[in-house]
Amino acid sequence: MPQVEEGTFGNGVPYLRTGRGPVLLVAAGLTTEHATPKGTARRASLAWTAPFAEHFTVYLVNRRPGLPVGTSMSDLAADYASVIEDDLGEPVHLHGTSTGGSVALQLAVDRPALVRRLVVAAAACRLSPRGKSVMAEVARLTEVGDTPAATAAMVAAGTRPRLRLLTRPAGWVMGQFTAAKDPRDMLVVIAAEDVFDTEPHLGRVTAPTLVLGGTADGFYSRDLFERTAAGIPRGRAVVWEGRSHVGVAGGRVPAAVGLGYLLAE
């Protein structure tokens, strides 16, 4: 396993760094707290990253903690732009998963010159109506302190439809152990993603872009994955029949396809 360094960029964005080569910024999905992953989540993140670290200096990034209410997706993207300009000093390859994919798309729209090549996994130009409904319920349950039920709702939406009745109880159990000490940052990001919609501005993206999705994703639809790619001048989509949100976000095959695309300059 390559050496792993943990740190914080100048503007407060936390990161894990590993590998060597050109810089690849990897934007994480939604997390209960804005910090580098710990324990099982850390091991899983680094295992997913390992093939990328053979070719890139990988920075696994979250969002900065202490976000003010009303923070927009463009504000989150501006934090990454600051990291690229002030800390990394050069345009980057960019991979964003789920909510991280939303931020990555926003960055490519707002500051296209900073992105060399882009992969958006289990994410699209906006949430589907069902995805918005799920996240509104997650926010409501979190605000009243019912973390197990909030986690169960997210886990169920992230898996295949036929498995959702089975995974909801498992998500409830997981929620017993994953309650954030302070969920305010997560709630701010959920609110930002609720109104996020880059479809009218996708033509600004100059980076070659690959959108990865699955037809069983509870937060997005095939149409949204394909519309996102079609709106980007050098965009393309790969959509797997029957793959869920989690199946694309954490699957080995989607990761390998994404890595191949990033290397195909």
Molecular structure report:
It is a single chain. This protein has 265 residues and is α/β, with parallel strands linked by helices. 45% of the residues lie in helices and 17% in strands. It has ten helices and eight strands. It has helices spanning 39-53, 73-88, 99-110, 129-143, 147-158, 164-175, 184-194, 222-231, 245-249, 252-263, and strands spanning 4-8, 14-19, 23-27, 57-61, 92-97, 115-121, 209-214, 235-240. Strands 1-2-4-3-5-6-7-8 form an eight-stranded mixed sheet, with helices on both faces. Helix 8 (222-231) links the parallel strand 7 (209-214) and strand 8. It starts with a strand and ends with a helix.
Radius of gyration: 17 Å
| Sheet having the most strands | 8 strands, mixed
What's the pLDDT, averaged over the residues?
A: 90
Approximate shape: globular
C-alpha end-to-end distance: 26 Å
Order of helices and strands: EEEHEHEHEHHHHEHEHH
Structural class: alpha/beta
Q: Which spans of ≥5 residues are poorly predicted at pLDDT below 50? A: 163-178
Amount of helix = 40-55%
Give the spatial strand order of the biggest sheet.
1-2-4-3-5-6-7-8
Portion of residues in beta strands equals 15-25%
Count, helices? 10
Q: How many DSSP-defined strands?
A: 8
